[in-house]
Predict the structure of ABC transporter ATP-binding protein.
Amino acid sequence: MQLTIRDLCKTYPNGVRALKHVDLTISTGMFGLLGPNGAGKSTLMRTIATLQDPDSGAVEFGALDVLAHKDRLREVLGYLPQEFGLYPNLSAETILDHFAVLKGVTDRRERAAQVHALLDQTNLLAARKQAVGGFSGGMKQRLGIAIALLGRPRLVIVDEPTAGLDPTERHRFLDLLGEIGQDIVVILSTHIVEDVYELCSKFAIISHGEVLYSGSPAAAVAAL
Ligand code: ADP
Ligand code: ADP
């Protein structure tokens, strides 16, 4: 599967040019989007996730014209935004079950199976009955990725997921992403260079809305 981004431009009403003719081709596996705060990463992520329209340009996922068929993209998308709220009094299991319904997993047995498998995969099985208000930052992010994986998405977007995690939780989270990125397209937005070098086979550097580099980490080092 391949995600193709063609000539995306976005200028906010305040005049900030967040995306300037962005072109990217992203294949199955872990793709890193590296850039400092304000580079345009979230704008690009939200555009791919069909939460925000660009001024011009195109996004294709396989043969799907994403901007023309937002509902169909959302059926195959898992999105972990930079900030997300969770009802603190609900358990991880209950929250996952609710999101599974929203994702259209209506069969109760299928839903229970997916929820259990994702709790297991994200190492939250033992904590599944606990109220998430008591979760650590790392546990919340792992629950976030479990939510994003409901409905078996083929494109997963995670926006700055490691910001604020301690080193142990950060590695646990990156390992988890690496497992997911075996056979679907995963885009990891980050301002942490190590996230990209430890995990991603391909990455792009974005700054002031422009793609400065796109390729493999090894090729980037060789070019220095
Ligand atoms: P990043 O995710 O890399 O931090 P963003 O996409 O959030 O970058 O932001 C890119 C630029 O666009 C920044 O200068 C930011 O302040 C600006 N920006 C983002 N969202 C808006 C908005 N809704 N209105 C105006 N400016 C915005
Ligand atoms: P991110 O880096 O993920 O965009 P921010 O904290 O910069 O996170 O932005 C949070 C929200 O505020 C986003 O919805 C973004 O679109 C909006 N935003 C960011 N910068 C600006 C800005 N300069 N003017 C108006 N809204 C903005």
